[in-house]
Amino acid sequence: MLDGSGGFHVHLVSDSTGETVATVARACLAQFSDARPIQHLWYLVRTPGQVERVLAGVANDPGLVLFTVVDSTVRRALETGCYALGVPCIAVLDPVMSTLTTLLGRGITGRPGGQHVLDAAYYKRMEAIEYTISHDDGQALDDLETADLVLVGVSRTSKTPTCAYLANRGFKAANVPMVLGIDLPEQLATLKSPVIVGLTREPKSLSEIRQNRLRMLNEAETTAYARLESVTEEVGEARRIFARRGWPVIDMTRRSIEEAAATIVELYRSRYPNRGEDG
């Protein structure tokens, strides 16, 4: 089912938002660095009529079908259609659901998008997102004690995107920038509840990122902000401050946002083992 250029089609079918099947597909495809998938997204597929439209798309671009669909009638229509077309069709959650059914001794509810209910955890997550937005880049410093996590680091160490990812997991995450020659806000020295984490990056990598940033803004790339010597001094001073204050440090040079967030969550859990991801 490869096309002329070596690409292949992958159809992601979901009866909800598609986040789960897309995440599974992304995790699996990441193990094949030379793979060239052409993804087709089919979300909110909840009736046999909608399945027919999916099958028409699969017939036009034959390829692997991955799905998360709970309704038995819709599943059967999709699986039967894929069988007739001669394409593989995989229910990505079936092994887990089957094991849970055996373990718990009960059947599934069959409710599409059950993980997206408007329960207390959902509203706490929305609250965390609002908090993180209002405490980005050193804002609302007098309210930092109410944070779960505070990230500190020099410019371009991925503080904001990491906070955004953590907020989506239910953590109130604030971030405070460090600027060479300027003292950190005094509020950081008095915090007791939040877990404070320092973010850093190798100077050469950070310098290149800042140069690219300036290039995008059509500004001179030779300023101290991006010059390697200045960046090296800035990173060194940040590390010395982190060490003096006893804050754990995460090097973002070769680490993704997701990996950094996972490490930060573990630091939080080590201090607060009885708290959930919603604080």
Describe this structure in words.
- By secondary structure, the chain is of the alpha/beta class.
- It folds into two domains: 8-115, Rossmann fold (3-Layer(aba) Sandwich); 120-271, Rossmann fold (3-Layer(aba) Sandwich).
- It contains nine helices and eight strands.
- α7 packs across α8.
- The model has no long low-confidence stretch (mean pLDDT 89).
What keywords describe this structure?
279 residues; alpha/beta; Rossmann fold; 4-stranded parallel beta sheet; 9 helices; 43% helix; elongated
> What overall geometry do the principal axes of the alpha carbons give?
elongated
* CATH third-tier fold name of the largest domain: Rossmann fold
Number of domains: 2
Oligomer, anyone?
A: single chain
Order of helices and strands: EHEHEHEHHEHEEHHEH
Report how far apart the termini are: 47 Å
Task: Provide the CATH architecture of the largest domain.
Answer: 3-Layer(aba) Sandwich
Strand residue content: 15-25%
Radius of gyration: 24 Å
Q: What can be said about this structure in brief?
A:
By secondary structure, the protein is α/β, with parallel strands linked by helices. 43% of the residues lie in helices and 15% in strands.
Topology of this protein?
Blueprint: E1 8-14, H1 19-29, E2 37-42, H2 48-60, E3 63-68, H3 72-85, E4 89-91, H4 94-104, H5 120-134, E5 149-154, H6 159-168, E6 173-178, E7 195-200, H7 203-216, H8 228-245, E8 249-251, H9 257-271
Parallel strand pairs: 1-2, 1-3, 3-4, 5-6, 5-7, 7-8
Helix pairs in contact: 2-3, 5-6, 6-9, 7-8
